[in-house]
Amino acid sequence: MGSPGRRRILPEQLTRQWQGVLSGRSDERDIELALDAAHQARESWGKTSVTDRSNLLLKIADRIEQNIEYLAIAETWENGKTVRETLAADLPLVVDHFRYFAGCIRAQEGSAADIDANTVSYHFPEPLGVVGQIIPWNFPMLMAAWKVAPALAAGNCVVLKPAEQTPVSILVLVELIEDLLPAGILNIVNGFGTEAGQALATSKRIAKLAFTGSTNIGQHILKCAADSLIPSTVELGGKSPNVFFADVMDHEDEYLDKAIEGMLLAFFNQGEVCTCPSRVLIDESIYHKFMAKVIERAKTIKQGDPLDTETQVGAQVSQEQFDKILSYLAIGKEEGAELLLGGDICRLEGDQSGGFYIKPTILKGTNDMRIFQEEIFGPVISVTTFKDEAEALAIANDTEYGLGAGVWTRDMNKAQRMGRGAWNSGGTRVD
């Protein structure tokens, strides 16, 4: 969807070459057209039986599953992430989300309560109507599925704006399922945030607003929703601490192997994950031995063509993100951080020689540095040490972010203490 004559050419993240692919550059007029279509479908879709809505989501899941390889390649081409990840994680999870919410809606129930002999209070779920959704670029299809599947399951119609950096792959998906969808229930509007996104966020014709992305934009989204007196759901940035206690090194076993793997998950999706272990805290008594193993493993990570199924780290999503990450590497060095691994552009050969590739990087420093306190959103781990449990907790909580956290210990008592109540985070992984 896009206004006549308003198009933009997209670059390819893998090679940084302009491919002549056109994407719509929509604005408020297109948002209004999408809202018109959604409102026209609102009543009929909201009255569609739960059984039929559930069955539609199951059909969508089946269609996506039948085309996983096609969709995985489309997302890799657009985003720069490895096809090994889109094949093994992104697209299977998209399928699972549609099936999950197809089941949830069948199991949803209302409730009733006696107030007195003559009064009964009851409630039953009803669709909100038309909802607005703004999707990030790090998981273009999966984040869309997170929002679209429950909204459609609940009987809502959707107007969705993908990130301007990744506008195409969601259109490829919707083209595959278009024949399954009643007209108007799912509307995709591409464009820049200041044009299409702002128009959607401030519209008085939506009943709820959902957003995943940066903290600054999320704050603006919340204000827009408050101005319209509508509910909103936001998932914002993170600088997730992962704490590794000394006992992870007690034995050379599968647990230690998993702990090393867990730390290096910071490089999953090129570090473009809000809950990845971007801030790592290691007990000072095991720091040198543990980090030696981590670096040894990290050096085996294969970086290269994202369309090669053996590649583990691909390209960053855009020139802007590429430049941002490089600027933080420079900031880290200026702040006095010790470079343990990477720290530079990954210069590939052939078609990928000009792509947005950055070497997986590990920097050692202190928690007051900007590389610890600010979200880099790239393949960069900031590492520091702690003396005891209390200091680990203090360092972990010394951040503006509170999205996720992780703790690694063989001691179940310590895991229980660290995993419950003490963290200032929305979710904590205990391993």
From TrEMBL:
The keyword Oxidoreductase applies. SUPFAM superfamilies: ALDH-like. InterPro entries: Ald_DH/histidinol_DH (IPR016161), Ald_DH_C (IPR016163), Ald_DH_CS_CYS (IPR016160), Ald_DH_CS_GLU (IPR029510), Ald_DH_N (IPR016162), Aldehyde_DH_dom (IPR015590). Pfam families: Aldedh. One of its GO terms (molecular function) is aldehyde dehydrogenase [NAD(P)+] activity. Residues 25-420 form the Aldehyde dehydrogenase domain. Keywords: Oxidoreductase. The active site is at E235. Belongs to the aldehyde dehydrogenase family. This is Aldehyde dehydrogenase. It comes from Shewanella benthica KT99.
